[in-house]
Amino acid sequence: MSSILEVRNLKARSREGLDLSPAVDFDLQEGEVLFLRGENGSGKSTLLKILLGLHKYYEGSFQLRISKVEMQYVPQLGNLNFHLPLTLQDMVPPTARDLPLLRGLDLNKKWNTASGGERQKVLLAAVLAKRPKLLVLDEPFNHVDKDSVQVLEDALAQFLKMNPQSSLILVSHRALVQNWASVKFLEIR
Question: What are the pLDDT digits (tens) for 139-165?
Fold first, then answer.
């Protein structure tokens, strides 16, 4: 296994230079899952945004050893409340429409009327179909009912099993139901 991400003393900062998160260090190897936990406001999402190039103010360093096109990101569902006349099907590429994750879903339903679980299944299916080397999920279980959480976790477990070189960074407040073999936990305080 080779390293795809090395993070050293990485700390999110505001434009004014204030610390937004504690400094973190970690390495992520091919096939590993990194589970970031922490209280609201601890800087988990901001750290992800630094790694994705979406937040420019930080201290420390990180080395991403894959190209950005090999990464896929699903932000917090609350950040995707747009009101466009789209159906769920409009959000899913044809290559993803046969994924078990979408079974039983009415893809003709409007995005605006879909539940959190339906939206999250569609977003996850869209990125899984691309078979990324690194999948970054920010609070994928928020606004999702218990049954949908299990479906989402099962889909992630199946993806990781079928794509052993792919890695996952997952931010969540909740404990995982799945017992994935190579999970690293990083507590952000």
Answer: 998 878 888 888 888 899 999 999 999
Orientation angle between helical segments 146-162 and 116-128, nearest 10 degrees: 10
Instruction: Quick: pLDDT tens for 20-68.
Output: 888 999 999 999 999 998 888 888 999 999 999 999 999 999 999 999 8
Listed by start position, the domains of the chain span: 3-188
Classified by CATH at the fold level, domain 3-188 comes out as Rossmann fold (3.40.50)
Count helices and strands in the chain by DSSP H and E runs = 4, 8
Strands in the chain per DSSP E: 3-12, 24-29, 33-38, 58-64, 71-74, 134-138, 167-171, 183-188
Query: Which pTM was predicted?
Result: 0.90
The closest of 75, 122, 67, 120 to 99, measured between CA atoms, is 122
